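Notes to self after the Tuesday call (sharing in case useful).
The group wants a holo model before anyone commits to mutagenesis around the pocket. I volunteered. Ligand is adenosine-5'-triphosphate. Logging inputs and output together so the record is complete.
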Amino acid sequence: MSSRGRFITLEGGEGVGKSTNLAWVADHLMHRGLEVVRTREPGGTPRAEAIRGLLLDPTGEEPLDADAELLLVFAARAQHLARVVRPALERGAWVVCDRFTDATFAYQGGGRGIPPGRIAELEAFVQRGLQPDLTLLLDMPMEAAQHRLEGRLDRDGGTRDRFERERSDFFEAVRGAYLARAAEAPQRIAVVDADRPLAAVQAELASLLDDCLESWG
Ligand SMILES: Nc1ncnc2c1ncn2[C@@H]1O[C@H](COP(=O)(O)OP(=O)(O)OP(=O)(O)O)[C@@H](O)[C@H]1O
Ligand SMILES: [Mg+2]
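Result:
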């Protein structure tokens, strides 16, 4: 058996509960005695977080070209993989990441309309075969997720980032692309109904994680 750690990603549109459940997944795994690295994309290292700033910043006159956006996402990913994800997996730690390449297929593919084949070329170049071992796709209708997001913005203050300012057809396309991706890789991507109380979502996450822990040994 290999001592390499496992790579788990959380995916889904805006406000579905990725960050909330990421913390919970990390705790769940730590309680089972595993070393866990919590991280996110775009970002996860200082330089990759700087690229995240460029991607999310809604201000400025100059629109961000869709191909430039895609390349920035993969530039941040290359840095994150080299500095954080690969070293952690190699020393046997588990990596739990808020968004990864499925988000690129969803946002830059579904949302922006970049052909998936072009994204797949960059995926192969940057990841060199590395894929998540398990992806938890939190899925719910866009309107309900927007409502949650508004609740969070009201409570925490803050403003909408460059993606959160998109229109509803953008988010419908993102959701559709995520679900299409899950249909293509059902053994890796588990679709979890996120439009339920947190306790119900987390009970399902616990059972998915424990099934994986058992089958991975
Ligand atoms: N199952 C749930 N039921 C009700 N509220 C929830 C649930 N899950 C998360 N929330 C709340 O919804 C809001 C959005 O959750 P969270 O920030 O975790 O989403 P996110 O997917 O990380 O969003 P973003 O895409 O903006 O990063 C938060 O206020 C959170 O407390
Ligand atoms: Mg979040």
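Two things stood out.
The chain is about 55% helix and 10% strand.
Residues 66-90 form the longest helix (25 residues).
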